[in-house]
Amino acid sequence: MTERNLDDKTILVTGGAGFIGSNFIRFLLRRHQAVRVINLDKLTYAGNLDNLRDVEGDSRYEFVQGDIRDRELVRALFPRVQGVVHFAAETHVDRSIIDAGEFVLTDVYGSFILFEALKGAPHVEFFIHISTDEVYGSCDEGFFRENDPVAPSSPYAASKAGADRLAHAYHVTYGLPLVILRPSNNFGPYQYPEKFIPLIVTNALEGKTLPLYGQGTNVRDWLYVEDSCRAIELAARRGAAGEAYNVGAGNELPNIEVAGRICDLLGKGRDLIKLVPDRLGHDRRYAVDWGKMRELGWAPETKFDEALKATVRWYEANAEWWRAIKDRSRDFKAFYEQNYKDRQ
Ligand code: NAD
Ligand code: TYD
After folding, report:
1. Which tens digit of pLDDT belongs to each residue from 180-230?
2. Domains of the chain
């Protein structure tokens, strides 16, 4: 297994102003004294420079506002870096159900622009492509392995699957150093409050009802973002070109149980939980086998209940952070709910 040293490298991080990207940049700068980071982010509704206030003055960090679809901009950045970690994407399944256009354009076409730039940059040693466990589709039983076929259900997952397979094709065809990661549902600080856990926590803090799709029985495997960042960093050091790696946590829980535990942590009654019409095409369960990551030297370390508690406390302590952005998604939420009512 070859070990890459990240300490003397400049790494291009795309989508670094989002949830996992901002946690990853902080993680990288903490772990590697001599690393340099260029964060390329368009600052869509999900991008937020408040996520990076504590590192913005760090001389090793540079922010470039721009679109990964901007071929000239991307081409100009590649000569300056030796590694890439690509997070930038449209990421919310509900939004992709209402309008898939930006998902195709950013997640597929944007990734294509980055892969093309990689083709012209033989000095770049690694390109970590952040895919998702959702590319496999719903898992009735057992656990998906990396060689199982992709069968995405939502326009989001299909766009991610398109990019995932394009990454693979660019490795096979051009020998590019692309490594694909497929993490399960992340949670933790700085997650945009339209996603399930921060939505439930912030709604509960506001004394609002907690909307559970369907019967609340869908299952996700919850991965703490710190564990996720360790997996990504390890893949940058040791991941083999052309390989895909699942990243899971072993924290499978039905949504209603997660919401219940959040109520308990906040001292709120579980009667805040409200069953609402189901998401269209709602995948019942995601589950991956991460044995390949274990072979690389990674395993999740955080206990779910401790991580959930830390997350809830973080949202309690950072109400200013989420209040400022939650308003931005209210229009979408109202539109989404109306759209669903119309279909019932
Ligand atoms: P996020 O929505 O919080 O952040 C996405 C970031 O990408 C934002 O900062 C946004 O401004 C930026 N962005 C969007 N379009 C862009 C464009 N065209 N050009 C440049 N920047 C752009 O997302 P996240 O939850 O942090 O997810 C990061 C990555 O991890 C995504 O690729 C996602 O598919 C993948 N992933 C997420 C999870 C999860 O649970 N959050 C799980 C598995 C995989
Ligand atoms: P989400 O955070 O959107 O992640 P994903 O759909 O990509 O897994 O949703 C996680 C789970 O929570 C999923 O089963 C849908 C469900 N959910 C609700 O029940 N209510 C909500 O308001 C949201 C946003 C999600």
Report:
1. 999 999 999 999 999 999 999 999 999 999 999 999 999 999 999 999 999
2. 10-187+223-247 (3.40.50.720), 196-219+253-281+304-336 (3.90.25.10)
Scored b (16 or more CB within 10 A) or e, 239-250 reads: beebbbbbbbbe
- Residue 240 tokens read as 């083999």
- d(C-alpha 87, C-alpha 294), whole Å: 22
Please report which ligand is nearest the Cα atom of 160.
1
Span from the CA of 91 to the centroid of ligand 1 (angstroms): 6
pTM, full prediction: 0.97
Q: Summarize pLDDT for 61-75 with one digit per residue, the tens.
A: 999 999 999 999 999
> Which of 42, 91, 94, 109 has most ligand 1 atoms within 8 Å of its beta carbon, as the pocket-test mutant?
91
Exposure string of 51-83, with b = 16+ CB inside 10 Å and e = fewer, is: bbeebeeeeebebeebbbbeeebbeebbeebbb
